[in-house]
Design goal:
The protein has about 270 residues and is of the alpha/beta class. The chain has a single domain, classed as P-loop containing nucleotide triphosphate hydrolases (Rossmann fold, 3-Layer(aba) Sandwich), CATH 3.40.50. It is about 45% helix and about 10% strand. It is built from 11 helices and 5 strands. Strands 2-3-1-4-5 form a 5-stranded parallel beta sheet, with helices on both faces. Helix 1 runs parallel beside helix 11. It is globular. The N and C termini lie far apart (about 55 Å). Bound molecules: adenosine-5'-diphosphate.
């Protein structure tokens, strides 16, 4: 699968008409996706082990998408491949009163992964140019300066050894309607049903415009955005596993060399 097709080229325009959330390029069916997905998940574990052992680089995965787009599902079904010891997941909620007394990146910086770690952001600092913009939580004079701050912040992370990959899970409003209906009507899913999501749904086009601006302005060489067709969960999982394998295999990961003369060490009897 060519993952470059999902990448928003730095400096390019994004037209949602070019991105079909139903598309499944490079894989025709759920059955055909099973084997390559499994192979990718095995490879991800191997790459993560090298990342952890080498402890020079870090990986930050940013997940964004409209409600029900599958952020939790991706963490379970794709990131579930990683050894949990080397993973730090942060879900960004409405900022606390304390967080609001600081700049918008304060809580985000603290959550970034240290060397050897994989950091997963379930929502992120992008909420500060998405919900904040659409819901009018800050004036334009405030949120419009944030794209430059975000790019500079992500450059700082990249220069410090953090590889960054940002993924937008692209679903259609029709697909969301089905998923929200399922949440409302299925007892085991009802805990996820939040009336607040319905208000956000009525602002769909405003969110798409906000996402377009964020992705156009903040897809950079050091922290690219990928738009992944996500109406079909099996395709979403496969595509994201491919993007992660692609990103991680370009990090120059390898196991560190063993201690000198390792073969000559005798394992002594236990005392
Ligand atoms: P999720 O929908 O991610 O599963 P929640 O239902 O707890 O989890 O929703 C988290 C909420 O927090 C979302 O509505 C999101 O828009 C909001 N949120 C996250 N970051 C911010 C922010 N910086 N400012 C305002 N709201 C935010």
């Amino acid at each position: 699968m060519n993952v470059e097709r999902f990448c928003i080229k730095p400096g390019s325009r994004l037209d949602w008409k070019d991105h079909d959330p139903d598309a499944t390029p490079g894989c025709k069916s759920k059955a055909a996706a099973a084997k390559p997905l499994l192979a990718n998940l095995e490879r991800l574990l191997e790459l993560q082990e090298q990342l952890f052992a080498q402890s020079e680089r870090a990986l930050l995965i940013v997940l964004q998408g409209m409600d029900t787009s599958g952020k939790d599902g991706v963490i379970e079904h794709v990131m579930g491949a990683f050894n949990p010891q080397g993973v730090k997941i942060t879900s960004f909620k409405v900022p606390t009163p304390e967080e609001l007394t600081h700049d918008f990146l304060w809580r985000v910086h603290k959550a970034t992964p240290g060397r050897g770690m994989v950091g997963i952001f379930n929502r992120s600092h992008y909420e500060d140019v998405l919900v904040v913009r659409v819901a009018g939580l800050a004036p334009k004079a405030v949120w419009s300066t944030r794209y430059a701050h975000i790019n500079a912040f992500e450059k700082l992370l990249a220069d410090s050894g953090v590889a960054i990959v940002k993924i937008f899970l692209h679903i259609s409003p029709e697909e969301q309607a089905e998923r929200l209906t399922a949440r409302r009507d299925t007892p085991e899913k009802q805990w996820k049903f939040s009336p607040g999501d319905l208000k956000v749904r009525t602002q769909w086009s405003a969110y798409m415009k906000a996402y377009q601006d964020a992705l156009e302005r903040c897809s950079t060489g050091w922290a690219p955005w990928y738009v992944v067709p996500s109406n079909k969960k099996w395709y979403r999982n496969l595509a994201i596993s491919e993007i992660l394998v692609d990103t991680m295999s370009r990090l120059g990961l390898a196991y560190p060399p063993p201690v000198e003369g390792i073969a000559s060490y005798e394992i002594p009897p236990a005392g």
